[in-house]
Design brief:
Distance between the termini: 247 Å
Radius of gyration: 68 Å
Largest sheet: 5 strands, antiparallel
Low-confidence stretches: 155-159, 164-178, 180-184, 194-206
Order of helices and strands: HEEEEEEEEHHHH
Structural class: alpha+beta
Mean pLDDT: 72
Shape: rod-shaped
Number of helices: 5
Helix content: 40-55%
Strand content: 15-25%
Length: about 240
């Protein structure tokens, strides 16, 4: 080979080596960006009164990954909450795990992408306050029932006694007797009391027969007087 050809081939080889190196660097960069665990994040939040755990994948290369969530206790897995597959994007893709989490609980989020990535993201600690119902809902004012507005019943001591049944013979007799006694008392009390003069006249005989008796007495006196007069006249004639 001539010296000129050797001199020309050397730059070509150097250019090929540089191109291969660049390809390796770009491939490594792509692999690193595809499996960067920093593109994953997790949070515990509330959906109304229910708790949820959300995991966001912001992988721009859209590499499929499997996300698994575990509840921890003393740095050990207590139970598996759930597992979902996610394909990320530069804007971020969110997967949701329903979980009634407790305050200050710890969760381990594991991510597996391909055959090379099998790791956890930083441990998730839930907020200090658990999920609760919406406190802004106004309380419904209870409508008073008719029994609440009705007056209270009278005390047992002031209750009106029930009338006796008219079908009872003893009750009828007692009622009739009391009514007749009341009527007699009423009649006696309403009768006028006699005057003082009337009582004396009754005692001396000055009633409706007084005139007749006086008339008879006058007649008897007249008859007696006539008889005396005739007797005296006869005596005078005989002398």
């Amino acid at each position: 080979m001539s010296p000129s050809r050797r001199t020309a081939a050397r730059p070509v080889r150097m250019l090929g080596v540089a191109a291969a190196s660049a390809a390796l660097v770009l491939g490594a960069s792509a692999s690193a960006s595809a499996f960067d665990i920093g593109t994953f994040s997790a949070a515990a939040s509330c959906d109304g009164a229910k708790g949820v755990i959300t995991v966001v994948d912001k992988d721009p290369t859209a590499t499929p990954a499997v996300v698994t969530v575990y509840l921890q206790n003393n740095n050990a897995d207590l139970r598996q909450v759930g597992e979902q597959e996610v394909t990320g994007s530069a804007a971020g893709v969110t997967v949701t795990f329903p979980e009634d989490w407790q305050p200050n609980a710890k969760y381990r989020i594991h991510v597996k992408a391909g055959d090379d990535v099998n790791t956890d993201i930083p441990t998730l600690t839930t907020p200090a306050k658990a999920c609760a119902a919406d406190d802004a809902t106004p309380a419904t004012t209870p409508t008073p029932s008719p029994s609440d507005s009705s007056p209270a019943p009278a005390a047992s001591g002031s209750a009106t006694p029930a009338p006796s049944s008219p079908s009872s013979p003893s009750a009828s007799a007692s009622v009739s007797g009391s009514e007749s006694t009341a009527a007699a008392d009423s009649g006696a009390s309403n009768a006028p009391s006699p005057a003082v003069g009337e009582s004396h006249l009754a005692e001396t005989g000055a009633d409706s027969h007084t005139g007749l008796i006086v008339g008879l007495a006058v007649v008897l006196v007249a008859v007696g007087g006539g008889a005396v007069f005739l007797g005296m006249r006869r005596r005078g004639t005989s002398r």
